[in-house]
Design goal:
Layout: E1 7-10, E2 15-18, E3 27-31, H1 42-61, E4 65-69, H2 76-85, H3 89-106, H4 122-134, E5 138-141, E6 144-147, H5 163-168, E7 184-189, E8 204-206, H6 208-220, E9 223-230, H7 234-248, E10 254-261, E11 264-266, E12 269-270, H8 281-286, H9 291-299, E13 307-309, H10 311-330, H11 343-350, H12 355-367, H13 371-380, H14 388-395, H15 401-419, H16 423-435, E14 438-442, E15 448-452
Parallel strand pairs: 3-4, 3-9, 9-10, 11-13
Antiparallel strand pairs: 1-2, 5-6, 6-7, 7-8, 11-12, 14-15
Helix pairs in contact: 6-7, 9-10, 10-12, 10-14, 11-12, 12-13, 15-16
Amino acid sequence: MGKIMIELYNTLTRLTEVFVPLDPNHVTMYVCGPTVYDRPHLGNARSVVVYDILYRLLSHLYPKVTYVRNITDVDDKINQAAKQNQESIRDLTSRIETLFHQDMAELNNHLPTIEPHATDHIQQMVTMIQSLIDNNHAYAAHGHVYFSVKSFSSYGQLSGRSVDELIAGSRVEVSEFKKDAADFVLWKPSASDEPGWDSPWGRGRPGWHIECSVMSTEYLGINFDIHGGGADLQFPHHENEIAQSCCAYPESHFAHYWIHNGFLMVGGEKMSKSLGNFYTVHDILGQGIPGEVIRMVLLSTHYRKPMDWNEKAVSDAQKGLDRFYHVLQQTNTVDCGDEDIAEEVLEALKADLNVPVVIACMHRFAKEGEGKKLLAAGRMIGLLQKKPADWFITQQSSISDQEKNEIDHLVQQRKEAKQTKNWPEADRIRNILTAKKIEVQDHPDGTSSWRKMV
């Protein structure tokens, strides 16, 4: 196999590096998955979409890729949500996991190769915790087990800050049983009405961080290629994963490349329920915005940068996809192969997943009427998954047949007015359509299409 030369920004070294897998015949990747207590929000979706792009690229270039993404189904947020909903924890986690998969499928995401559940790996967590105690990196106290941060001299390497700086800038769990404020919990006692498992330290449940160390090494080994997640997980979650994994396996370097996607903003502000700008994927789909539009918005900003969800971004994505599908329809492009993927598209993806450049290429392919190149590029990034006719039918599905006929008639009248250069009449008809929330798009070939504005 020749040199592939993917470049990825490695948070661990703070450098853009050439990706060199441990085994060129088998790339391994672990990504932190959902905590299944509520439907995924837009920030969750951005992370899933980013690593879906990386998975698609790696799968295109390498013979085998194992992509592991965990399901966190034991967590205090889950306990609280189950009580609030008056349902069992198992019913809640099963229901939310199903909804997560449905919402992510609407955004054209592939399933990971393996999707392990935390609750299926409790014994492995107990074993790793015991090894940390045996190696003098953890200690038991009153049914709790804590990791001793000072026992790991490299703590803070991922964040590039000292322990004191990290602790000062975060909310640290306070406990009278800790030897040091920076220490974090590996195991904690469970009340009678909380999920719990037997352990050498009493009935309890794992802390959040240990599960990812266990499940990544369980399926990928103590050394693997890529670990991904949102920027919000860099500290403390990923920092703690490195510490406990390297201390449990002293011969391990754990993940070689650390990839983090940027935050999601809404209307220029951080998304939060208190600001009233908190949106789940289900909320956005319920507004009549197709999943592919959501995906295109999420891809329109480079994955490492903060991205802003706003009405203009949604409108631009909708118009762009309408244009792409129209070109596919006009060129009668229904299929493509690997040979149709333009080299510039692959080069953009190999340059630290520069998807905005790919989208720019797609606009150029559309302008030049290169249907196969357009379709191949779209499919590389999970777009243009529908047949053009189905796409436009979906856009009009909420409109009655009578209203469709009226709109078609107005669009035809407007076209005739433009052909006779009766511009006032053409503008009048467009205003009527706009009042009906109908957007008309004129195409270079002289045809027009329309869609219901969201």
